[in-house]
Design brief:
Length: 70
């Protein structure tokens, strides 16, 4: 997987099984960290404390997991 691939391209490659499970997990973890960093970058100038932003991210992740299991 190239570093210049878009998020959609990376997700597509992960879903179709064209990479091994460790590579999929690594890719998912990298995307999660990148998303968390982007959320902090957006919320920080708005005055949200990092701990509050983390709580928000955790709530969104929990909702996504819950919906994925439905």
């Amino acid at each position: 997987m190239s570093s210049s691939a878009s998020t959609c391209e990376r997700l597509s490659l992960m879903r179709d099984g064209s990479c091994d499970p460790r590579q999929r997990m690594s890719g998912c973890q990298k995307m999660a960290v990148t998303a968390r960093m982007k959320i902090h970058a957006v919320l920080s100038p708005a005055g949200m404390e990092p701990d509050d932003a983390d709580e928000l991210v955790c709530a969104v992740e929990a909702g996504a997991v819950a919906n994925a299991h439905c």
